[in-house]
Design brief:
about 475 residues; Rossmann fold; N-(1-d-carboxylethyl)-l-norvaline Dehydrogenase, domain 2; three-stranded mixed sheet; 11 strands; about 45% helix
Length: about 475
């Protein structure tokens, strides 16, 4: 593909549909890398196959002001570079037609957009921490700074939850129906999670809205899958060479993608299945499969791989000992915890994941995956560990993963270099590291973080002793030697 006009984004021949016919029927919160390479791309490909008016309005609530400005400068078009081991494809995406940011447009403009009659879906990719849920309880964290602000100032929200409820209240007051709230984050039961957050928040700020909301809003669960690394200068340069001009909104990703969606929409949905999405009655088994086998393996490689000096997932999995551990982690420790349809080939799925991890064209940083561990540990490791404890079965690699996370949040890698810990609980980790010796006392202090581990797991003697043993082995023998032994 090469541009045939001065600016590629003014070239109407790039699209098989008329962008002028699109309406902002979807408002998406979180114009990040994953959304650009997944939902917006799939919507674009759906539009290319049928006459439809399903356009997207993008909303970023905090930060990324320059990204939104760049997007507007390009008439809301951007590129996705799909990078396979042998070939790559660059696609120009046109499904986005509008954007908003409180820094430019103010709170009320976003609430007003959510209240427009044509809006049928409010989707989001805001990461686990964006739901402001306490992981151990599954309830809204009213002490979260964003939620605390929104409870005091509901007309000027800062959180995604606050905006959604404000928009629903505006619709109810205008005599309109509601919309579907569609979470597209890697959170097990993501529809249930956002529903709980919305209901808890509504109960506190607008209790009179609660019954209307229960009748006029749906919260489907989804399972999303595509490896989308943070953008690099190298990938940006590749895209510039392909299209002939710079695109600061571009993103690179692997060719594989999957989107499984619970078919529970209050005002209809795009025919995303034309572009490979799958509508099902129950997403939960697929979510658990992906979170435990793919995301759990990713986090294992992220913490232990980073400590061992591997900057990228493909480098870590190239170590035969890591590869064997990941295969065993998936098939021996995660698969027994799953309840999948009978025709699901989990061995083939595991091999497909190993092949995807090994793709050298995707430079997925271990450090990137290691962020926000406090939100990721429960669905990726701890729920499976609880299963094994209840069934008296082996989970030594899951336990090693927890110990690897503990070594990682200690803040120093095996070369003695500081680690840039990015996590909502980073200050808590630093306090623990400063107040404990690097031994079982640090393990016990970390296990005492009940927002991660809850009340029951730290009382399980077998688990605690196993974590301590793994932790001390990692400390004394190093990651690579420990992995070899396992």
């Amino acid at each position: 593909m090469s541009p045939t006009s001065t600016n590629w984004f003014t070239n109407k021949d790039l699209f098989q549909y008329d962008r002028q016919q699109l309406k902002s029927r979807i408002v998406h919160i979180g114009f990040g890398a994953f959304h650009r390479a997944h939902q917006a791309l799939i919507t674009h490909e759906m539009l290319s196959q049928q006459s439809s008016d399903w356009g997207i309005c993008e909303v970023n609530l905090m930060g990324s002001e320059q990204l939104i400005q760049n997007l507007r400068h390009q008439d809301h078009c951007y590129h996705v570079l799909e990078k396979g081991p042998q070939a790559q494809t660059c696609k120009t995406i046109g499904s986005v037609i509008e954007s908003l940011h409180p820094a430019f447009d103010g709170h009320q403009a976003i609430i007003a957009k959510l209240a427009e009659p044509q809006v049928a879906i409010v989707s989001m990719t805001i990461t686990e921490k964006g739901y402001c849920i306490a992981p151990a309880t599954g309830k809204l964290d009213t002490n979260h700074p964003l939620i605390a602000h929104d409870l005091a100032h509901p007309d000027e929200p800062q959180s995604a939850i606050g905006y959604i409820v404000a928009g629903l209240r505006a619709r109810q007051q205008a005599g309109l129906d509601g919309f579907t709230v569609l979470s597209c984050d890697n959170v097990q039961g993501n529809g249930h999670i956002v529903q709980q957050a919305v209901l808890d928040y509504t109960q506190k700020v607008y209790p009179e809205l609660l019954e209307w909301l229960k009748q006029h809003v749906t919260f489907p669960c989804t399972m999303v899958d595509r490896i989308v690394p943070a953008m690099t200068d190298e990938s940006l340069a590749e895209i510039t060479a392909i299209i002939g001009q710079a695109d600061p909104c571009a993103i690179a990703c692997e060719p594989f993608r999957q989107w499984v969606i619970e078919d529970n929409f209050i005002k209809g949905h795009p025919d995303w299945d034309l572009a490979g999405a799958e509508f099902v009655d129950d997403v939960v088994p697929y979510e658990a499969m992906k979170l435990r086998m793919l995301n759990g393996s990713h986090s294992f490689l992220a913490y232990l791989g980073y400590l061992a000096g591997y900057p990228y997932i493909s480098e870590a999995i190239a170590n035969p000992d890591f590869e064997r551990c990941i295969r065993q982690l998936m098939l021996k420790e995660q698969v027994p915890t799953l309840s999948m349809p009978d025709d699901t080939d989990l061995e083939a799925y595991a091999q497909e994941l190993l092949d995807r991890f090994a793709n050298p064209s995707i430079q997925h940083k271990t450090w990137q995956i290691a962020t926000d561990g406090s939100q990721k540990l429960p669905p990726r490791f701890l729920n499976s560990i609880q299963f094994h404890l209840a069934h008296h079965s082996d989970c030594r690699l899951l336990t090693l993963a927890v110990a690897g996370w503990m070594r990682y949040v200690g803040g120093i890698d095996e070369s003695g270099q500081p680690i840039d810990i990015r996590d909502p609980l980073a200050d808590r980790y630093r306090e623990i590291v400063a107040s404990t010796d690097d031994d079982e006392n640090r393990v016990l202090a970390l296990l005492a973080i009940d927002s991660i581990f809850g009340q029951q797991l730290p009382t399980q003697k077998t688990f605690v002793e196993s974590v301590i043993s793994c932790y001390m082995m990692l400390k004394n023998d190093g990651v690579k030697e420990t992995i070899k032994c396992y």
